[in-house]
Hints:
The protein is globular. The chain has 2 domains: 23-89; 98-207, Iron/manganese superoxide dismutase, C-terminal domain (minor pseudopilin epsh fold). The chain starts with 24 loop residues before the first helix and ends in a 19-residue tail after the last helix. 25% of the residues are buried. By secondary structure, it is mainly α. Strands 2-1-3 form a 3-stranded antiparallel beta sheet. A hairpin with a 4-residue loop joins strand 1 (128-134) and strand 2. The protein is 45% helix and 9% strand.
Amino acid sequence: MKGIYKLLKLEPKIYDFSKVKGISLKQLQEHYKLYTGYVNKLNEIWNMPNDAKAYGEGNSTYSNMRSLKLGETYALDGVKLHELYFQIITSGYRAPFGEIESLIKRDFKSLENFYEYLRKVGTSVRGWAVLVIDPIDNRLHVIGSDAHDTGVVWCSYPLLVLDVYEHAYFHDFGTDRKKYIDVFLRNVNWGEVNNRLKKYYSIKPFLGGNRQGYDKFTCPMGYYKL
């Protein structure tokens, strides 16, 4: 059955793995294959019929619509998270500086404490450790997710995405996830993180969520002021 509309086909993004240090090309290529699989499944899902009658009755235990929606969020988040992950490690390492360094020191006291906090989140969850900034308090938080679509926080803006699924590191590091996280951190381009902060500040007025007591927030670099 034809849908009411059909979206354009998404293509996987291309990344230059030659800039990644300490993670083998084989590991990166196998990881990339999984990402392309999510893109392919998302294309399949987004080209399914969107005629409500085609799905029968809805049911929260099992129904055609429930299966479709669970697959959709898993594939869509799988695409987005992997793109954020690959972009940040294939841009060439840059040490923390500027806006993000100021915010980390404000919210985590020091870079060293932030790194250790991120490591502990990364070894405590099964899927992702994500540094976000949230419009409710305009502060940094590290969110832990056991799966692509589990633990996701609505409207929090992702700045740094760390994949801790075994597929991201097992070929090179075996069970040594801590070593993998350290290698990941040595590949992060913090300039890209600052770019993401700029995008957050540009859309912050439209996100809402600001609470009393946080209404005098000023971005340290002057990009945004409430």
